[in-house]
Amino acid sequence: MLEKGDLETFSRIEADLESGAMIFFALEDGAVMATCMAKPLGGGTWELCKLAADKRLPHRGAGSAVFAAAMNWAVEHGAARLFILSNSRLTAAVHIYEKFGFREVKLDDYGYDRGDIAFEYIVPRGAGCDARAAGQ
Protein backbone atom coordinates (compact mmCIF):
# COMPACT_ATOMS: atom_id res chain seq x y z
CA MET A 1 0.00 0.00 0.00
CA LEU A 2 1.41 3.35 -1.02
CA GLU A 3 1.41 6.22 1.45
CA LYS A 4 1.51 9.97 0.82
CA GLY A 5 5.31 9.98 1.26
CA ASP A 6 5.69 7.26 -1.37
CA LEU A 7 3.58 9.20 -3.84
CA GLU A 8 5.65 12.33 -3.20
CA THR A 9 8.86 10.39 -3.80
CA PHE A 10 7.56 8.90 -7.03
CA SER A 11 6.30 12.30 -8.25
CA ARG A 12 9.76 13.84 -8.02
CA ILE A 13 11.98 11.07 -9.35
CA GLU A 14 13.28 13.17 -12.25
CA ALA A 15 14.24 16.00 -9.86
CA ASP A 16 15.97 13.51 -7.55
CA LEU A 17 17.91 12.05 -10.49
CA GLU A 18 18.95 15.55 -11.57
CA SER A 19 20.25 16.19 -8.04
CA GLY A 20 22.44 13.07 -8.06
CA ALA A 21 20.14 10.19 -7.16
CA MET A 22 20.37 6.92 -9.04
CA ILE A 23 18.02 3.97 -9.43
CA PHE A 24 19.38 0.46 -9.91
CA PHE A 25 17.64 -2.56 -11.38
CA ALA A 26 18.58 -6.23 -11.50
CA LEU A 27 17.28 -7.77 -14.71
CA GLU A 28 16.98 -11.30 -15.99
CA ASP A 29 15.76 -11.94 -19.53
CA GLY A 30 14.38 -8.39 -19.60
CA ALA A 31 12.33 -8.82 -16.42
CA VAL A 32 13.00 -6.72 -13.33
CA MET A 33 14.08 -8.90 -10.41
CA ALA A 34 14.87 -6.10 -7.92
CA THR A 35 15.35 -2.35 -7.58
CA CYS A 36 16.85 0.16 -5.15
CA MET A 37 17.38 3.93 -5.18
CA ALA A 38 20.15 6.04 -3.64
CA LYS A 39 19.36 9.73 -3.17
CA PRO A 40 21.18 12.59 -1.49
CA LEU A 41 19.45 14.21 1.48
CA GLY A 42 22.12 16.86 2.10
CA GLY A 43 24.97 17.28 4.55
CA GLY A 44 26.69 14.07 3.42
CA THR A 45 23.64 11.91 4.20
CA TRP A 46 22.12 9.73 1.51
CA GLU A 47 18.99 7.62 1.73
CA LEU A 48 18.81 4.13 0.29
CA CYS A 49 15.15 3.62 -0.48
CA LYS A 50 12.53 1.72 -2.42
CA LEU A 51 14.40 -1.58 -2.16
CA ALA A 52 12.08 -4.17 -3.65
CA ALA A 53 12.46 -7.62 -5.12
CA ASP A 54 10.13 -9.85 -7.09
CA LYS A 55 8.68 -12.30 -4.55
CA ARG A 56 8.41 -14.93 -7.28
CA LEU A 57 12.22 -15.03 -7.57
CA PRO A 58 13.49 -15.38 -3.99
CA HIS A 59 17.05 -16.07 -2.92
CA ARG A 60 18.67 -15.17 -6.23
CA GLY A 61 20.83 -12.33 -4.85
CA ALA A 62 19.10 -9.62 -6.88
CA GLY A 63 18.11 -7.58 -3.81
CA SER A 64 21.66 -7.66 -2.46
CA ALA A 65 23.06 -6.75 -5.88
CA VAL A 66 20.95 -3.62 -6.33
CA PHE A 67 21.49 -2.64 -2.70
CA ALA A 68 25.28 -2.93 -3.14
CA ALA A 69 25.13 -0.86 -6.33
CA ALA A 70 23.08 1.87 -4.62
CA MET A 71 25.38 1.89 -1.62
CA ASN A 72 28.49 2.15 -3.80
CA TRP A 73 26.92 4.96 -5.88
CA ALA A 74 26.18 7.01 -2.78
CA VAL A 75 29.66 6.58 -1.31
CA GLU A 76 31.35 7.31 -4.65
CA HIS A 77 29.32 10.54 -4.78
CA GLY A 78 30.25 11.79 -1.33
CA ALA A 79 28.06 10.00 1.19
CA ALA A 80 29.43 10.03 4.72
CA ARG A 81 26.27 8.50 6.18
CA LEU A 82 23.68 6.19 4.62
CA PHE A 83 20.15 6.08 6.02
CA ILE A 84 17.26 3.64 5.59
CA LEU A 85 13.67 3.75 6.81
CA SER A 86 11.86 0.42 6.70
CA ASN A 87 9.40 -1.94 8.36
CA SER A 88 10.57 -4.65 10.75
CA ARG A 89 8.23 -7.19 9.10
CA LEU A 90 10.34 -7.01 5.92
CA THR A 91 12.75 -9.60 7.25
CA ALA A 92 14.57 -10.21 3.95
CA ALA A 93 15.29 -6.48 3.60
CA VAL A 94 16.38 -6.16 7.23
CA HIS A 95 18.74 -9.09 6.65
CA ILE A 96 20.30 -7.28 3.68
CA TYR A 97 20.77 -4.08 5.69
CA GLU A 98 22.48 -5.92 8.52
CA LYS A 99 24.58 -7.99 6.11
CA PHE A 100 25.99 -4.76 4.67
CA GLY A 101 26.90 -3.38 8.09
CA PHE A 102 23.93 -1.10 8.81
CA ARG A 103 22.94 -0.61 12.45
CA GLU A 104 19.49 0.16 13.78
CA VAL A 105 18.85 3.70 15.02
CA LYS A 106 15.84 4.81 17.06
CA LEU A 107 13.75 7.72 15.78
CA ASP A 108 11.03 9.77 17.45
CA ASP A 109 9.07 9.88 14.18
CA TYR A 110 9.46 7.35 11.39
CA GLY A 111 7.50 9.48 8.94
CA TYR A 112 5.41 6.65 7.51
CA ASP A 113 2.54 4.71 9.04
CA ARG A 114 4.24 1.46 8.18
CA GLY A 115 7.78 2.67 8.98
CA ASP A 116 8.86 1.31 12.35
CA ILE A 117 12.60 0.75 12.00
CA ALA A 118 15.54 2.80 10.72
CA PHE A 119 19.15 1.99 9.96
CA GLU A 120 22.34 3.91 9.29
CA TYR A 121 25.80 3.18 8.01
CA ILE A 122 28.64 5.57 8.77
CA VAL A 123 31.18 5.47 5.96
CA PRO A 124 34.70 5.08 7.39
CA ARG A 125 36.80 8.22 6.76
CA GLY A 126 39.20 7.88 3.89
CA ALA A 127 37.83 4.50 2.99
CA GLY A 128 36.30 3.66 -0.33
CA CYS A 129 33.33 1.38 -0.37
CA ASP A 130 32.95 -1.92 -2.08
CA ALA A 131 29.56 -2.92 -0.78
CA ARG A 132 29.65 -6.07 -2.88
CA ALA A 133 32.57 -7.32 -0.75
CA ALA A 134 30.99 -6.06 2.49
CA GLY A 135 27.80 -7.97 1.82
CA GLN A 136 29.41 -11.33 1.16
Within the largest sheet, what's the order of strands?
Answer: 1-2-3-4-6-5
Low-confidence stretches: none
Largest sheet: 6 strands, mixed
- Helix content range of the residues, please? 25-40%
Please tell me the overall pLDDT: 87
Rg measurement, Å = 14 Å
- Please, how many helices? 5
Strand content: 25-35%
Instruction: Write down the overall geometry.
Output: globular
Structural class: alpha+beta
- Kindly report how far apart the N and C termini lie: 32 Å
What's the β-strand tally? 6
| SSE string | HHEEEHEHEEH
For this entry, give a set of tags:
136 residues; single chain; six-stranded mixed beta sheet; 31% helix; alpha+beta; 5 helices
Describe the structure.
- The mean pLDDT is 87.
- It is built from five helices and six strands; from the N terminus they run ααβββαβαββα.
- Strands 1-2-3-4-6-5 form a six-stranded mixed β-sheet, with helices on one face.
- The protein starts with a helix and ends with a helix.
- It is globular.
- With 136 residues, the chain is an alpha+beta fold.
- Helix content is 31%, strand content 32%.
- β3 (45-53), α3 and β4 (81-86) form a beta-alpha-beta unit.
Summary of the model, kept short:
The protein is built from five helices and six strands, in the order ααβββαβαββα.
